[in-house]
Design brief:
With 370 residues, the protein is of the alpha+beta class. 49% of the residues lie in helices and 14% in strands.
Length: 370
């Protein structure tokens, strides 16, 4: 091949490669991308109003729920604070005002406020959640049905827990007892050291702690509400002068009413109620006094102590028991000697009749010779 031909072939442009039909890769074009963007923009343009309406509705529900929750909780807090500041007398007297325990009222108010705030928050938040789900067009019928079935199952399975909780709520609302009260709950008795919605703790007389479920309490005897009564029965001989006995007890009552700490524990004058019973050899004088709650036993012991000392000084004899034992006459020495008996005489008909029958005598030997 000549040199001019080779130079012409070298100067000729290289042929462009044809697209391969075996790879299967389609290169997106600018027109395809433009169509997709147009479809997306049209879809957003068609649904943005719906999204905006749903978002505004959800935002409105959340704002209203938050505002309502804050308003309700604040209203409950103000109501509880007003209840705590109000210390009206029970009977409109100064004595009734002393019956109100500030600390106990504060604890009770806090417990009631906590329960009310929790219930209000649960109701408001639950209602807002259901309204938001309804905004998204979610069918709430299956959800509510499932919640109802779950509630029934939980109610049957935890009915004791529900009973304890409701009993605790009503005990707090009705102020049946509080911390520091001495109560008799039937199953146990002692001083209340903690009041819960499910369990109440008591400190027994021997220092033990009783855990009582509120749902098991059928009756409550509160020994610390209002006032207590101290009663003392003084048994003296029936021959004592009643006026003298009344005078001595009156002096004791006047003295103890002026001394500390008994003047604070006594919420009323010591009264001599009179004769509680009269027997042949004794009589019982009843003394009573209204005392501070929980202080009746100490006042009774102090009254017995002082009355005994005053009676000893006044030479008034106190007899023990409801009846005074009668003085027994000395025994007759001859009482231990048995009465004479007819059996003591061996020749008496009774002795002869009761004597054993003698055995028959043996026959005498024969004297005839063989």
């Amino acid at each position: 091949m000549s040199l001019p031909v080779l130079s012409a072939l070298a100067a000729a442009p290289a042929p462009s490669p044809s697209p391969s039909t075996t790879t299967g890769v389609v290169t997106p074009t600018l027109q395809d991308a433009q169509e997709k963007a147009t479809h997306a923009a049209s879809w957003v343009e068609e649904n943005w109003s719906t999204w905006l309406a749903i978002g505004l509705r959800v935002l409105l529900v959340l704002v209203i729920a938050a505002i309502l929750r804050v308003f309700v909780r604040r209203a409950i807090t103000k109501l509880i604070d007003r209840m705590g500041r109000t210390a009206e007398a029970v009977d409109g007297t100064a004595l009734g005002g002393l019956l109100v325990n500030v600390e106990r009222r504060r604890q009770r108010s806090q417990a009631i406020g906590s329960v009310l705030r929790s219930v209000a928050s649960f109701l408001i938040i639950g209602t807002a959640a259901l309204m938001i789900l309804g905004t998204f067009e979610i069918n709430l019928a299956p959800l509510l049905a499932s919640a109802g079935v779950a509630g029934v199952a939980i109610g049957f399975g935890a009915r004791n827990l529900v009973t304890d909780f409701l009993s605790g709520v009503f005990m707090i609302l009705e102020d049946q007892y509080g911390v520091g009260d001495v109560i008799d709950a039937g199953v146990a008795s002692g001083e209340v050291i903690e009041v819960g919605l499910r369990v109440t703790k008591l400190r027994g007389d021997n220092g033990e702690i009783w855990y009582i479920r509120n749902g098991e309490v059928k009756r409550i005897g509160n020994l610390s509400q209002g006032w207590a009564t101290a009663g003392v029965d003084v048994t003296v001989r029936a021959s004592e002068d009643l006026d003298h006995v009344r005078s001595v007890i009156g002096d004791v009552a006047e003295t103890i009413s002026k001394e500390e700490p008994w003047n604070e524990r006594l919420w009323g004058p010591i009264e001599i109620l009179g004769l509680d019973s009269v027997l042949l050899d004794s009589m019982v004088v009843r003394v009573s006094a209204k005392t501070m709650p929980g202080k009746a036993m100490s006042v009774e012991r102090e009254l017995r102590w002082r009355i005994k000392r005053a009676f000893d000084a006044a030479e008034i004899r106190i007899v023990g028991g409801p009846t005074a034992p009668a003085e027994e006459d000395p025994l007759d020495p001859s009482a231990a000697v048995a009465a004479p008996s007819v059996f003591a005489n061996a020749e008496s008909p009774q002795s002869v009749a009761s004597s054993p029958i003698p055995a028959p005598a043996a026959p005498a030997p024969s004297s005839v010779p063989k």
